[in-house]
Structure formats: C-alpha cells, structure tokens
Write a structure and sequence with these properties.
single chain, 250 residues, 8 helices, seven-stranded mixed β-sheet, Glycerol-3-phosphate (1)-acyltransferase, three-stranded antiparallel β-sheet, globular, alpha/beta
Length: 250
C-alpha cells in the first residue's frame, strides 16, 4: 500500500462525488495487470480542464495512477509543482532523451500504473473523437521497462466539457477557450482495452531490434487499437496531423 499523499487524500475525499456527478462507468478493469506490475494506459485526450484525467483517477480505486504530463507543463512553475505533488512525471521531448535510467522507465519497472496521452493535446469540440498522430515516446518507455500498454477509451467528456472555439498554440497541450466552459453532469464511460506488448504493436519478434521507425509504427498501431475501442460507443476518425505541433484559431 502506497503512503498517504496528496493524490490519496484527494481520491478519498472527491472520487465518490466525481463518480456520481459523471455517472462514471468503468469497463475492462480486469485488463489491468495485477497490483505491483507496471503498465502504461494510452488514452484519448478528451474535453478540457483535465476532466478526463480526474475521471480516470476517480474510476480506478485500488491503486494510484501516475500521469506522464506534457513537457510544456514542466515549464510553468505552479503547474509543475502541483503535478509533482501528485507524484506525476513529464514527457520527454524526444526518443533520444529516453534511456534506462529515465524516471518514467524506472517508475514503470518498479510496478507503477501510469497514463500518457499520446496525442499530447486536448482538441476542440469540432474534432471530438478524432485520433491525431500518436507520439512514439510511450512505446519506448514501455519497451525499456518491459511492461505492457493498455489502450483506454474515454467517452462522454468531449460533450461534458466542450470547447467550441478558442486558441491552440504550438506545443501547448491546453487550448484556451474563448467562451465560458462548464463541466456538465453527463455520463462518462472509460473502457480499458486488452494489453499489448511493445513487440506486438511494432510487429516484430521479442528478440527483434526496435528502432525509431519501429516505435512510430507501434504508436500508429496503438492508435488503431484505441480507435476500435472508441467505435464501440462513438464514430471515430483518424487524422495524421500531429495536433500538439499546430497552432489553430477556432
């Protein structure tokens, strides 16, 4: 059992209320590895105001979810401090920065459950249930730590916390709404899919060599697996745009 920290305090005081407010339904919890075995959850980035992450935290009650926040978050001191108090980590800028002694790799190898949003950015309501190009870092973290990856579909938050128009800056994961945004009490469903090894996603044998190209191939395959989960509830389209690298005005 992990020591009481800010995450556990917030979970114990807020999780039940969040579950009721969002009529939260968790499916596929049996696909998570046993407690003590690490895994990466790969989620679509839904809605705004971190509501997708908050609902995921509220829905998984028997262990802590550590998030791999965007590297931009580490550049804003108050955000960085708050995320660190919740025992979260930060995404590396490139694959080359990720080595065996990487903090994320070590945390996964130690048996932690972690979540990353491979699109790296929330998107606007008009792009709801669109999966943009995944970054490959998630594959390298899991590969070096020798842990599986679980695709996780988050359904309903696009409607519950919509951003109809706003500003999106290059490399910034949070769009800036140009209107009041409310968190509406609409039903949220989180479905955890079957786990995959990095080798399965990359299409190589366990003894095969994985290079930068293979990691991106695995990220593209992971996106298809997540799209299959989303399509159980909503239409889902694929876009090869790297959304985090774009500036937009809606």
């Amino acid at each position: 059992m992990e020591n009481m920290n800010l995450y556990h305090w917030l979970h114990s005081h807020l999780a039940s209320g969040i579950r009721r407010y969002s009529q939260l339904e968790i499916k596929g919890i049996e696909h998570l590895p046993p407690i003590g075995q690490g895994s990466v959850l790969a989620c679509n980035h839904s809605g705004n105001f971190w509501w997708d992450a908050i609902c995921l935290m509220a829905g998984i009650s028997d262990r802590q979810v550590h998030f791999i926040a965007h590297h931009w978050d580490a550049s804003i001191a108050p955000i960085k401090w708050f995320l660190e108090q919740l025992d979260n980590y930060f995404l590396d800028l490139s694959l080359e920065d990720i080595q065996k002694n990487n903090p994320v790799v070590e945390a996964l190898a130690s048996g932690n459950l972690m979540c990353q949003y491979p699109e790296e950015s929330y998107h606007m309501f008009k792009d709801r249930y669109t999966l943009f190009r995944f970054s490959p870092q998630i594959l390298k973290y899991a590969h070096l730590a020798q842990v599986p990856i679980c695709p996780v579909a988050v359904i309903g938050i696009e409607e519950a916390v919509p951003t109809f128009f706003g500003l999106k800056f290059t490399g910034v994961p949070l769009p800036i709404p140009l209107h009041m945004v409310l968190i509406l009490p609409l039903k949220v469903t989180i479905e955890i899919g079957t786990s995959y090894t990095v080798e399965e996603l990359c299409g190589i044998s366990r003894s095969g060599k994985i290079n930068t190209t293979a990691y991106q191939t695995g990220a593209d395959t992971l996106r298809e697996k997540l799209a299959e989960l989303i399509r159980k509830d909503r239409p889902c389209r694929i876009s090869d745009i790297r959304y985090a690298q774009e500036s937009r005005l809606f």
